[in-house]
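Box 4.2: Ligand-aware structure prediction
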Amino acid sequence: MVKYKKIEKTKIPEFIKDLTENYKVFGPVKKDGTYVFEEFNPEKPFEIKYTKTMVSAKKIFFPPEEVTMEFKGLKVKEKIVEEKIVLFGVHPCDINAMLILDKIFSLDHPDPYYWARRKNLVVIGVECEPTDTCFCKSMGTFELREGYDLFFREMDENNYCVYVASEIGEKLTDTALFEDVDPTIALEIEKRSIEKIKEEIPVKIEGLPEKIHSMYKNDKIWEEIAKKCLGCGNCTMVCPVCCCFNVVDTVDFDFKTFKRIRRWDACTLQEFSMVAGGLNFRPAIKHRIRNWFYDKFKVFVDKVGVPGCVGCGRCATYCPAKIDVRKEISKIWEEFL
Ligand code: SF4
Ligand code: SF4
Ligand code: SF4
């Protein structure tokens, strides 16, 4: 059951500093005109009111590149990282994305590298500042029922209301920095905060898996998108839900030390679907972009019950060709109504 507390805004730096005594703490900081999740540095305090980071928080518990095994001669050492990490300042869409990743990394064979980090992760969410590409309302990911330990919403000029949703959350707020708050007030603040969320281009999701499936073989729509798409993979790299990776083995110059590395991969990249002998079973961009849409809006639904998209809008913001997932979905609907 959620409990309610409050903290003065001026006390948040002290709260974060206290966290660093027991955890590595990551949060959003401003960098190069955008925001990025970085480890806490007292000289660069975290932003609480921020729009969105370029790369989502998934990079903390599912790193873009990690060594999973080291081989020295005949000795094999598996590298499982079990750090205690606090992820501060995560928006609702990204928390919902984490819940989807949890399901994906539990399918068939639970992923030990993912779960070693994830089970030790403390999640502190904050209410967001929507941008013109957000469509979390359409995706139903602007609200949270689970997936966080603490959640901060602005209460008034001087305070944040804090929603405490786990035992760890209770321990972290059981200090003189926090005071109890009347639940009626906390629920009113939550309502106000959710009502603030608007979206410029809503997306019709109901029935979309069936629509996408029905037009899988219709090249026209995919060719239209492919004419613009550069096959750069940005849309996947910034996506909080994409979870494909490649595994490569490298050898050091001593020819005795090997490393097995896994790296994020993207189905929009040409090499993604290349197999031994040089055959590429998605040879053209139209095949790859079709896979991106089909996977997100059909395969994810079949596998884990929800789309592989939380409406964060990053893919639209960072696409160099200005391909906007919301507008492409609208075209898909128009084409097949
Ligand atoms: S970011 Fe844009 S151009 Fe690059 S692969 Fe994705 S849709 Fe294509
Ligand atoms: S597909 Fe685009 S809008 Fe959806 S979660 Fe990924 S980056 Fe965000
Ligand atoms: S959209 Fe492509 S890169 Fe992203 S999870 Fe699906 S197959 Fe992987």
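In the box above, the bound molecule is iron/sulfur cluster. The mean pLDDT is 95.
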